[in-house]
């Protein structure tokens, strides 16, 4: 067995023990050993580590029945907290998340769009300290910080490879933020952590395979399989915005023609609208549609049609049991959910998969990325990630 | 811990022990316990089961070094074999596959396209008996039979839900074939087992995330993640043939317009060709192109363009490290590989993923489904599936 595999097995064993205690406490060491097939020595070592780190305690209860009485293990209440950061172009939301994915507290901070990484990270670090002080949270209870942001993220090394929205390239976010405040840092793409949150604690609770779609300033998707983010080899799986849906279509900012996002995202819609007359915001465009302006009806209907096509294509390729709509367009115009559903049901859904999935609105909305980032940080701590 | 989870853990433990012995034999029980953290009791129970079943033996070697000498465990040579069946419309290929994925022997049998499931299964069963006799293979060494076929398969229950090519609907293949010959039966979609074979023993050996594309009578894909087939909730993941690539496109036999397969698959190409002049086979169509007939150049170039688009879309959505081209079109016209590569590199690949994957021809070709089905059967036996 290679070193790598042995480490993997150790992490798996640790996670297994923690999950059993979390779900069955109070419980005896012997019962854990019996359930898992692990040796008493292995169980004791793991329990010892977790106790030393303050997550477990020896409860007052002892095991029932015949035989030698043994002390049962319990969880330390609220022993595990993490910080979730939703880092976007002009807004940062920072919250403290518990084991159940609940926000203990949270706050919003404006961000200047062309702020340097260094300034942003210092401000995040200060905001977290302030939050812990205000809420009187012992910093030893925080197991780490998760940061979700738009762009391509190297999640293993905690590097922001490229983010158009933040204007960042190759920023060693995890390394720098850890220098600033000492916590372990997990970084990921915002849609991936949002999907994780909806899968574990939101609209797709109970789902085994969740696909989340984001329609807003970008177009993207994220997939969760049995609690785990489906990443692909470069953490880029789900980049549906750059799938080609029309080889004779419009130019995309990526340099290709006919990318899906050219039909849906906010900047494309505004740029198309401005061929007709000056339109400054997406609200103005939808207002023009409501006023019956034909060009606006055509433009928005085309976007809705491509959203419906996207549902079919995502369902055909990932075969999820739940599909969740999210993103600024859907948050601002919630009717989109029902309209898109009508379109894909009547025209675009492949018949054999008609009953294979449920279609949801996001449930966590603007809290999704914060909660997902916090959960990601906890998962990493407990060695799932 | 639920019953389900305990069973899962038992299967996982058994597989872990078997994998360690397979890769490190001769090895002692103590070393297995140390590497895995399992108790000596658990290791002994699993080793006992595997020995009783004839897969392991106590080798003549004993452990080196100080301390109590212990007998080392070895593998019984060629102890594990399985049968792989490639079941297609007019041809059945049946082979015996060893632990390394090598074909010990194999044979082909014609099939009458409208043959009933019962007739086909009886013929498969007889062919397997004959093969074992001819090769003097002890039937106790066969751990099971895998069957790969085109169509939608419920792999958990071994039911062919729907296969246009075979003309079958809701056929309880696994149940009936097991009645006929007593072996454990695994059934799956042909592209999924072909991808498994190429991932484990073929063109994508060493890959962690493999995407295989099939271009032939249908258009489909299959994804393997770290040795496991990515199935989705209905075992339908990868059905790229019915993704919509042009809402104003041609009608597909599924009842939707503009499905990807209408631009690529053999029957669509022939039906389009026959708008111009009578064309009976795909070879005639490619001959017309070589002869410089403009309509044929246009038709085939369009197909190649959509194949290139498919590469980009699959790479964006699954972010694999290897992409493999397979299927009748590629087998008959191998130049397609290089032509498609040229097109996607120059026009359709999203720049950030340019270096994220390698692009391969199928290596196992017409043996792929047989080998993959055999490996699937072994995986299931060793509790991986």
Automatic annotation (TrEMBL), chains A, B:
The UniProt record lists the keyword Kinase: yes
Family annotation (SMART domains): HTH_CRP (SM00419)
InterPro entries attached to this UniProt entry: ATPase_NBD (IPR043129), HTH_CRP (IPR012318), ROK (IPR000600), WH-like_DNA-bd_sf (IPR036388), WH_DNA-bd_sf (IPR036390)
Keywords from the named record: Carbohydrate metabolism, Kinase, Transferase, Xylose metabolism
A biological process from GO: D-xylose metabolic process
Domain HTH crp-type: 19-74
GO molecular function: DNA binding; kinase activity
Function: Transcriptional repressor of xylose-utilizing enzymes.
Record-stated family: Belongs to the ROK (NagC/XylR) family.
UniProt name for this protein: Putative NBD/HSP70 family sugar kinase
Organism: Paenibacillus endophyticus
């Amino acid at each position: 067995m290679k070193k790598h595999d042995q480490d993997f097995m150790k992490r798996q064993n640790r996670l297994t023990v923690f999950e059993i205690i979390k779900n069955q406490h109070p419980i005896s060491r012997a019962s854990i050993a019996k359930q898992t097939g692990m040796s008493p020595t292995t169980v004791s070592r793991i329990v010892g580590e977790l106790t030393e780190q303050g997550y477990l305690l020896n409860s007052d209860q002892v095991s029932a029945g015949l035989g030698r009485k043994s002390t049962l293990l319990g969880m330390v209440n609220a022993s595990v907290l993490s910080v979730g950061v939703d880092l976007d172009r002009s807004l940062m939301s920072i919250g403290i998340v518990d084991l159940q994915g609940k926000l203990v507290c949270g706050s919003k901070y404006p961000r200047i769009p062309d702020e340097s990484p260094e300034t942003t990270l210092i401000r995040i670090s200060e905001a977290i300290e302030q939050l812990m002080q205000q809420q009187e949270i012992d910093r030893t209870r925080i197991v780490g910080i998760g940061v979700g942001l738009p762009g391509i993220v190297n999640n293993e090394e905690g590097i922001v490879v490229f983010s158009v929205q933040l204007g960042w390239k190759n920023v060693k976010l995890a390394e720098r933020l850890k220098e600033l405040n000492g916590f372990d840092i997990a970084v990921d793409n915002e849609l991936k952590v949002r999907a994780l949150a909806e899968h574990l604690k939101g609209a797709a609770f109970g789902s085994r395979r969740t696909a989340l779609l984001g329609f807003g300033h970008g177009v993207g998707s994220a997939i969760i399989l049995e609690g785990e983010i489906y990443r692909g080899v470069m953490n880029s799986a789900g980049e549906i915005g750059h799938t080609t849906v029309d080889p004779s279509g419009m130019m995309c900012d990526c340099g290709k023609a006919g990318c899906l996002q050219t039909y849906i995202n906010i900047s494309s819609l505004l740029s198309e609208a401005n061929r007709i007359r000056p339109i400054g915001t997406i609200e103005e465009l939808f207002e023009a549609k409501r006023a019956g302006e034909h060009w606006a009806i055509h433009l928005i209907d085309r976007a809705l049609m491509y959203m419906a096509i996207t549902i079919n294509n995502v369902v055909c390729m990932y075969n999820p049991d739940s599909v969740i709509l999210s993103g600024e367009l859907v948050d601002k115009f919630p009717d989109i959910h029902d309209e898109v559903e009508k379109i894909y049901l009547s025209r675009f859904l492949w018949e054999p998969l008609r009953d294979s999935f449920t279609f949801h609105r996001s449930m966590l909305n603007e809290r999704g990325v914060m909660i997902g980032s916090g959960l990601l940080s906890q998962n990493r701590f407990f060695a799932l990630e």
